[in-house]
Amino acid sequence: MRQITAGELESASLPQLKEICEEVREEIFRTVSACGGHLSSNLGAVELTVALHRVFHFPHDKLVFDVGHQCYAHKLLSDRADRFRTLRKRGGISGFPKRTESPYDCYDTGHAGTAVSAALGIAKARDLKKEDYEVIALVGDGSFNNGLVYEALNSLHILGTRILILLNDNGMSISPTVGGTHEALSRLKGGEGGEDDVRLFERYGLTYRGPVNGNDLKELLPALEGAKEELKGGSVLLHVVTKKGQGYPFCENAPLETHGIAPSDGEGGTEYSAALGEELCALAEKDEKIVAVTAAMTDSLGLRTFFERFPERSFDVGICEEHASVLSAALAAGGMKPYYAIYSTFLQRAFDEIIHDVCGQNLPVTFCIDRAGATGADGETHQGVFDLSYLSFIPNLTIAVPKDVGEFRAMVRMSAGFNGPLAIRYPRAGKDGRSEPVEIGKFEVLHSTMSDIVMLACGERPLGIAERVRRRANAEGIDFTLINARFVKPLDGKLLNSLSAKYVVTLEDNARIGGLGDAIARFYAGSGKEISSFGYRDAFLPHGTPQELAEEFGLSEEDVLRCVRDFYARR
Prior knowledge:
seven-stranded mixed beta sheet; Rossmann fold; alpha/beta; 24 helices
């Protein structure tokens, strides 16, 4: 796509702006269809983004995206059109705002609820430096369920600054938006809102304006110009209503299914989330205490059927990960058996609640941690490579890592009778396998030999690497014992103590610091065994395929094989 300049946007007539919108929309559709990414949210935000670039002057003015997955049109309008087709590819542009990528991106985002806080900080820095520019926070209605937004709004008067909040209301996060704020916005959109609904925002010191049609430039442009003028007197919230998937009927009619699109050459396999939904439904049929909790991701986590069959035992709390953790803990304290399904990267937000509310009380909450390990093209904010590290030192918590979907099913079944905090972490998709009973804290010996080398791997991807390394090593006359270390906590002490091998290799789809390798090293401290651990090095993983990231950041098949050869030569 050609690069559209700021001058072109400023001088364009309304019909010309509409043509630019369609040009941008078509490029987004073509690129996302090939590269994967967030489709329907970006299609809905095209007119809003074009209008913002017409009314404000970026990068002099600052635009902070909440989450940021709707930033594609912004990237096309900010000197990146010639690179846009490298979207989410290794070495290409990110699918999220990135300060190192362009001066047009003033703040890195990727998780919900951060934009208002960030905009306030940038605005306050502007005031202190006596600079002159506007700061805009573009926030979706789903993010307005997140408590961090209200913490930021609570400090608006305290900070004594001014920002423009653009509330992009499409009635969706990933799943449909829920909760009291959503209901207030719905009344305002429907013309039924009263003074109390407006006061919801104005009590924080915001001037509320709207709602306006965010897909109609004729209505949107003067509303933005008016908001810009009102900014001179204080902070403004402009309520903009958009349609997710705008311009492509199949996206408009299926905004949930087209929220995120896999690349045309994406990984296949069985979805772990589908297995979770099936197993939880089967367990819930037999046990009325089983409940399911999610934070705005019912369908993505495989819980739709459970929610339909057991609505009274289903809780979608919106983008409120901390609240969901405390809710789960309290449900357990009240005698229920909660399963909290969540992506690894989003569970980070509930770290204190995991420690204090769940594990501190030793409550039987099962965390079903999806998208664990390197997830690929969404980049740094979405790689699930820290959960083993930040969970493994918490007392009372058991951590399970299945080798395939079959073993995952067995772990879910096992969890029904487990009376303590449990985390099961797994990737998005993988291979099927036999579903044999699993015992807490027991490893599985996959291949046994008298070799002086033993390899311990946890999770499907590391075990796949281990199997390939073993085949290649066997071709060179080298063998080693291979163990499925399916519990990172507790370790299988009995088995580990029985191993006479001098050389130990560990593999994990996690940061090297604090995970399986560190746990094994502590176990064998002072034993004389030599340990070599493979996981991701001390870095934030950028976007790229999981295979590319593994090779580049510390989980390389070649490096593991080289290590085995070295140990074999020294035996």
